[in-house]
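Two proteins were folded this term; both appear here.
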Amino acid sequence: MFLEEEVGRINDILKKMDTLGKNIVWGAAENTVRLFQYTDVARYNISQIVDSNGNGQSFLGYMVKKPDQISWNEVKAVVISSYYHEDEIEKVLLEKYQFKGLILKLNAPGQTKPFYSHLARTQLQTPMEYRHILKRNEKFHNLHQGERIVIIGNGPSIKETDLTRIRDARKMVVHNFYLHKDYEVINPDYYCFAKLNKTEKINDAFYSELISQIGQKSASPQFFFHIADKQLIEQCRDFQDKAVNYMHLANLELELYEDVDITNQMLAGQSVPVDCIQLALYMGFREIYLVGVEHSDILTRQYGYFYDRSESIIGDKDMGVKPNNETTADFRKYLRVYGRLWQQYERLKELAENKGVKIVNATKGGLLDVFERADYDMLF
């Protein structure tokens, strides 16, 4: 739900008021400030603002009165503008003041925060130069309505997982998956990349070689790259005939991120499966299975993959990994990164449940405990 949708919902409630009558808003706090800021409430002959703590102070151009100072038999409608005390105020109006007019409550069933705390669509919009590119992603909206997909990570458990068993399933893979011995057999439908982070050792030349190798080995997956890497991808000859799509990954506030729209900004994952889950939700999949997504390095202090790092173009150029695969990050940094990652997974789980989508972790082992667990060999 976006702010614009919440405002529209409230405006529909306010339409029940007659502009010729005497109408009152009960509440002299932020909810009322936002009500006047965003909605059409000022159109409806608001004659007074009431608050239990009213002491004659000025508020939005009104002198705030206490409820006992109001002749309630003269009031046509009351808009209760209080997120936390809506039911309590309604009870006072009915029982103490015997109010017979129209009572308008603004909170929706199950609402978990004030209406003005929702994200505005404009806060998710991408820069103007990207919009026409990202708009092309509309073709993926609900493309796989009701289907299931397997998102395959690059964790070491993949070595113990027979992926040929899902050759006929919808599949999405990440980064260096092209190194898998059965890549051509598995033939993924989608191939997703996070932003290609450059360092003093890993530059455009290395990434160009990586992308070229993937292009040469890939048949016909739909590729997703970060929009910031568009120029590098377009310069790669081995991608000239590939189906390339772009995402705008951004550092969004989790509590305000309430819907996935890949034609606008998406949540930049601390790990690429977060990006994949968002793509799958937008595409309408009803069952999302994770395989090879361990996140165990916070305990082992070593990055593990199903492939040998020497097989990768980047290989020992990754400054965050020592030659023995040991990570260079200190534990404090790990806690911050993994705390954020778990919060991202938890938020996506909430979004999925709101859509009736099930996310299942079918990885063999690993630490990821946000989602329901299942045995891969029993599923496929």
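Next, the second protein.
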Amino acid sequence: MQETNANATPSQPKKPKFLVRVLLFLLAVVMVLGAVTVVVFRDRLSLDNIKRWIHYRSLVLNDSGQADSFLYNGSLEDTFTTLDGDLLACSTTSIGLYSGSGTQYVDLTVTMSKPVVSTNGSLAVVYDAGGSSLYVLGQREVIWSATDLTSILSAHLNRNGQLTVVSQSTGYKGTVTVYSSSYEKLMSVNLSSAYVMDAALSDDGKTLSILNVGQQDGAFQSTLSLYTLNTGDGGDFQPNLTCSLGSSVVLETRHTLSHVWSMGDNGLTITDHQGNSTTVDWKEMHLKGYSLAGDDFAVALLAKYRAGSQGELWVIGSDGTYQSLEIDQQVLSISAAGRYVAVLTGNQLNIYTEDLQPYATLESTQGARKVLLLEDGSAILISADSASFYVP
């Protein structure tokens, strides 16, 4: 049997080598400095900042973050929107798509009386209001079109790329047709009891909202009806529920994942899929401009008087609460996208976060009269015959 040495000293754990200790110390310092940097510069180190760097790294920007302007084929009376980081310009005779450097990817000759544009960010639909032609653009080209529709009233794309079109048809006061993302007909609703003004499919593709207008007890009335998407053959579908929007004239609707946003001349109504509505009243102020394109918020520019520069900018959340900002300059254009809001005046461009905190300012706007905001916080400034990109 092996004897045990009672006087033996227990083995001590080996201490880390000096170099390992130094490396661990430096790693801790880097982590602390990184955490402090993220806290201090959290707005500038956001994912949006990385997206801007990737998307616009080829643009040559001046010290203010503005790229050289480029000419577009049209005028300020045209209809503009952003499409996957590019500028989409539509007139009665042409549809043009331009990159930040002015490269034109789409130059389509069309014939439209009143072009209207709607986008979901990566796709856009251009249609002739009251006409028969409609075009869907994506991947910097026209990917689908139809020229045999009847009296188009509205068209919207949801986040899945499904298309909803409102048109007039013989024997009805409106027909709503839902198309798949490959533009096959999924559902068609014919209505004869009230005129259809707008319709949109929810972002998950499960709920269809239809805006109707008519009279009740001799007074003008707007109503919102919700349907479950049904791919049956018949067009005589019944809504799951219908709720009143009052006598306000609805200017535009937007259907997100769980809410329908109805922007009216007297206020904004937000309705969930259970029919619960929240209305934000303009408090006798005049609606001068608006945007429903923000992520789960709407923007309204309000003024006490129809003329003058005194006004308020409201940012309204899905629960009906809002924050406001007083504005004492003439506002030329407002825009919203992602988590940002842009306000263009005659003197400068101001970009705010959705809680109305200042994010970026551009002092020289070079005669711009319209602003279009992109989801990453960058903006497009449009003047009478040219446009330029601004990257904060």
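The two ends are 80 Å apart (CA to CA). Helices lie at 18-40, 47-55. These notes refer to the second protein only.
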